[in-house]
Amino acid sequence: MGAWGTGSFENDSAQDWVSDVTSLSDVTAKFDTLASLEEQDIDVDLASEIIAAAEIVAISMDQVAPDIPGDLLKKLDKLEEADAALIEQAKMAVSEVLGDSELLDLWSEDSEDSAGWNLAITGLIARLNSDVAANPPSPAEIKEVSGGFGPCVFCSKDIDPKDLTSLSIRDMSSKDNMAMSYGVYCHLSCLNGKLHPRHLIQNWKFNVDEALVDQILKGPAD
Fold it and tell me: How far from 173 is each of 167, 177, 179, 195, 211, CA to CA, in Å?
């Protein structure tokens, strides 16, 4: 039986492909292969390679998954640094795999190990998001808006403001309750670890040019 685990490199497809990677141009080519598909029917081999390619981009950003084997990291850590365009390409490629792929289908059927895969993917997304500067609210600002926040409702551990996720719960069992809601706080990784893979929350962050945003909101300049 071949290798099969929750980590991005813990499968035969990823391991075989990464053994031939010599530069980030190989990573770009893999993303281009995905983009060239006429139909979004992403087989398990390509999907696994895309996830591995995205991890290589993250490594080039000095964002290393904790479970990458040392010998593999030694090889990949020598590659050049990814530029902004490749980082954005990696984000979009992973999102496509999570949207519809044979890899997603397989993990959706694996009720025993899917939580581990969800956690691995949530970590990959966070690593790829590291190019966007964090701007978390201070505890005082959170307290002013919501009265403060407690520990994660899943693991009961404290949450750093930069990792804070809020859930709004509304009882829809009766139309009389529709106006009532309450909030809870959690780590996104804890939440995703409880969700079905098809409903994993992709908290992507993108570097957006402020001038372009102004143009979109206000229209082109005269």
Answer: 18, 7, 12, 22, 45
